[in-house]
Specification:
It contains 1 helix and no strands. It has 64 residues and is mainly alpha-helical. This is Translation machinery-associated protein 7 homolog.
Length: 64
């Protein structure tokens, strides 16, 4: 066992992926995803403005 071979081996570098040529369907799908993300962000912003939907948690009737 020599000292140079100890430890983990480094993984080989993966080749860089080429940019894909997107057709109309892919472009429409990406656009739709962006619009859904914007709508989700707007909904989150609106929800954070208001208080919680449930008010009191467990309600006690007061009966004994």
């Amino acid at each position: 066992m020599s000292g140079r071979e100890g430890g983990k081996k480094k993984p080989l570098k993966a080749p860089k992926k080429d940019a894909k040529d997107l057709d109309d369907d892919d472009m429409a799908f990406k656009q739709k995803q962006k619009e859904q993300q914007k709508a989700l962000e707007a909904a989150k912003a609106n929800a954070s403005k208001k208080g919680p939907l449930v008010g009191g948690g467990i309600k006690k009737s007061g009966k004994k």
